[in-house]
Structure formats: structure tokens, C-alpha cells
UniProtKB/TrEMBL annotation:
<feature type="repeat" description="FG-GAP">
    <location>
        <begin position="32"/>
        <end position="97"/>
    </location>
</feature>
<dbReference type="GO" id="GO:0098609">
    <property type="term" value="P:cell-cell adhesion"/>
</dbReference>
<dbReference type="GO" id="GO:0007160">
    <property type="term" value="P:cell-matrix adhesion"/>
</dbReference>
<dbReference type="GO" id="GO:0008305">
    <property type="term" value="C:integrin complex"/>
</dbReference>
<dbReference type="GO" id="GO:0007229">
    <property type="term" value="P:integrin-mediated signaling pathway"/>
</dbReference>
<feature type="repeat" description="FG-GAP">
    <location>
        <begin position="234"/>
        <end position="290"/>
    </location>
</feature>
<protein>
    <recommendedName>
        <fullName>Integrin, alpha 9</fullName>
    </recommendedName>
</protein>
<dbReference type="InterPro" id="IPR013519">
    <property type="entry name" value="Int_alpha_beta-p"/>
</dbReference>
<dbReference type="GO" id="GO:0009897">
    <property type="term" value="C:external side of plasma membrane"/>
</dbReference>
<dbReference type="GO" id="GO:0005178">
    <property type="term" value="F:integrin binding"/>
</dbReference>
<dbReference type="InterPro" id="IPR028994">
    <property type="entry name" value="Integrin_alpha_N"/>
</dbReference>
<dbReference type="GO" id="GO:0033627">
    <property type="term" value="P:cell adhesion mediated by integrin"/>
</dbReference>
Length: 299
């Protein structure tokens, strides 16, 4: 057995007690799946503990990171069910204990987040999505797509969505991202008013990709942040076959699909024309441009 994580893969592979070997020209993997001795971690009742999950390793310690988007947070006890992210050590943890991570969000139910930004964290669903940078000292992304800006609450409550970038040590300061907030933008639905960024997210080297399915009256969009330059790339909405209620950004992934030097960012629009659509974008200057699209075949 490579480690005790293997049983967690069971439901994904559907492989029963089988020793199997995958061979390809360039690489070979093989492992057993131990179905008799699963490692089970659990969290608070009704917290949706396990809604998102990933493996993390740092400094010779292996962890399972778990999102519980309906949990109450011990670090933000005056916020109503903001959700929480837990870390569970895989080895040397006989009690299978998981501890909540301090994302440094504080305990204020309302906080200023910009010139025309007042945060409301109640029911923000922190931990709805988790992603890890694929490298030895990988950072972690944790998002709360229902985070709201209530600055214009007399007219509109703006569910922009919020993400935190967490350091590989799982401690210390986290970097906040509110990719859809712009000063003085105030309309619900229009542009990024109800963008709900972070319902899906992925890391790709120095880029953080966040799906934002509520933008432009639920046409949706993709937000890409470059950690090195501290700036965002914007998708030219004219380059896509824009339909309201397509939910572009409901799922995202990224990789070097077209060539080893190109970063390709894929995003799903599951409600596009009732059958769904997938787009692939690449970076061109400060923009994301479409390089591929495929439509669903069945309505
Ligand atoms: C969070 O706290 C509220 C208020 O105390 C409570 O009603 C709710 O059930 C708690 N949620 C969970 C998941 O424990
Ligand atoms: C991110 O920004 C850095 C610094 O401006 C730049 O060198 C790098 O090419 C950018 N990364 C991508 C993938 O565009």
C-alpha cells in the first residue's frame, strides 16, 4: 500500500480488491486498494463536512483537507454558518481528529472590503471548493461562492463570492481574493454583481482559476488571477457564444493540453442551450481568448 489514503479512492475507481497495473509508454503505476481498513474522518453534524476534499503534504506531513460549507466557525463565532475548512493528519492520528483551520477572517459579521464593499459572511459557504497547487510546497485555494457585498443592501445584495489562498504550512496569513468586486458597481445580475466566484476553482502553476457562473445574468465567466503579477486576466465575453443562464464557470480545470508551453483553461457551461457547452481558453496579453469549444449533444 502506498499509504492509508488508498481506500478513499474506492468510490472513484469502483475497483474491488483488484491489483491492477496501468501501463503506458511513458509511465507505469500500480497499487492495491485496501477496502477492509478505510480511514474515516468525520466532522460536525449537518455541516456538509466532505463537500470538498483534497490531499496535502508539507514538511513530511500528509493531510486530508476537508471543506464543511455549512459549519459554524470557532474563529468567527458571531457569523452565522459561514462554513469552515478542516485539516486532518493522515498518519500519527489514531483518534482521526480533524481541526478547523484559522483562515484569518476574524470575527466581525460585517467588515469593510473596499470603497463600496461591505462584507456579509453569513451562509457564505466557505469550503464549497478546494484546490491545491501541484508542487512540493503547494498552496491551497478555498472559496465561499455565497459571500455577499451588502454595501448597497437597500437596493441590491451582491453575492460576489470570496476565495482565500492558504500558505503550504496551513498557518499564518491568507491572501483574500474577491475577483468580482469593483468599486461603484452596484447592479445585481449585470456584469459581476451576482458572480458567485469560487463555486469551482483550480490552481495552474502561478495562476488561480475561479469559475463565476452568476456573471452577466448567469451567462457566467471565468476569473484568472496571476499570483506573481497580482493581477487578473479578463475574458472577452464577445468571444463566447453568450447565453443567459448558461452558468459558465460552474466547473473549471486547467492543464497543458494543446502544447507543453501553453496553459489551457477549461470551463463548463452546463446549462448552455439546455445541453451544455465546454470552452477552452488561453492567455493572450491581459485577456483570455477562446481556443476551443464543444457542445453537448443531448437536450
Ligand atoms: C450553527 O449555529 C446556529 C446558531 O447557533 C445553529 O442554529 C446551527 O444549527 C449551527 N450549525 C451547525 C451545522 O452546527
Ligand atoms: C504572471 O505574471 C508574471 C509577472 O508579470 C509573468 O512573468 C508571467 O508570464 C505571468 N504568467 C502567465 C501564465 O501569464
Amino acid at each position: 500500500l502506498p499509504d492509508r489514503m488508498a481506500p478513499l479512492l474506492r468510490h472513484r475507481t469502483g475497483v474491488q480488491n483488484v491489483f491492477y497495473v496501468c501501463l503506458s509508454i511513458s509511465l507505469a503505476y500500480s497499487y492495491n486498494i485496501d477496502l477492509q481498513h478505510p480511514v474515516v474522518f468525520s466532522g460536525p453534524d449537518s455541516s456538509f463536512f466532505g463537500y470538498s476534499v483534497l490531499e496535502h503534504y508539507h514538511d513530511n506531513t500528509r493531510w486530508v483537507i476537508v471543506g464543511a460549507p455549512r459549519a459554524n466557525s470557532s474563529y468567527s463565532s458571531s457569523v452565522l454558518s459561514p462554513g469552515a475548512v478542516y485539516k486532518c493528519r493522515i498518519h500519527s492520528n489514531p483518534e482521526r481528529r480533524c481541526t478547523e483551520m484559522d483562515l484569518g477572517r476574524g470575527n466581525k459579521p460585517r467588515e469593510t472590503c473596499g470603497k463600496t464593499c461591505q462584507a456579509d459572511r453569513d451562509d457564505e459557504w466557505m469550503g464549497v471548493s478546494l484546490a491545491r497547487q501541484d508542487r512540493a510546497d503547494g498552496k491551497i485555494l478555498a472559496c465561499a461562492h455565497r459571500w455577499k457585498n451588502v454595501y448597497y443592501a437597500s437596493e441590491y445584495i451582491l453575492p460576489h463570492g470570496y476565495c482565500s489562498i492558504i500558505s503550504p504550512t496551513l498557518q499564518g496569513r491568507t491572501k483574500p481574493l474577491i475577483p468580482c468586486y469593483e468599486d461603484y458597481k452596484q447592479k445585481y445580475g449585470e456584469e459581476h454583481g451576482s458572480c458567485q466566484a469560487g463555486i469551482a476553482g483550480v490552481f495552474m502553476e502561478e495562476l488561480v482559476v475561479m469559475g463565476a457562473p452568476g456573471s452577466y445574468y448567469w451567462t457566467g465567466t471565468v476569473k484568472v488571477y496571476n499570483m506573481t503579477s497580482d493581477s487578473f486576466y479578463s475574458l472577452n465575453q464577445d468571444s463566447i457564444d453568450s447565453h443567459r443562464y448558461s452558468y459558465l464557470g460552474y466547473a473549471v480545470t486547467a492543464g497543458h493540453f494543446s502544447s507543453p508551453n501553453v496553459i489551457d483553461i477549461a470551463a463548463g457551461a452546463p446549462q448552455h442551450s439546455g445541453s451544455g457547452k465546454v470552452y477552452i481558453f488561453k492567455i493572450d496579453g491581459v485577456s483570455l481568448v477562446k481556443s476551443f469549444q464543444a457542445s453537448g449533444k443531448m437536450v
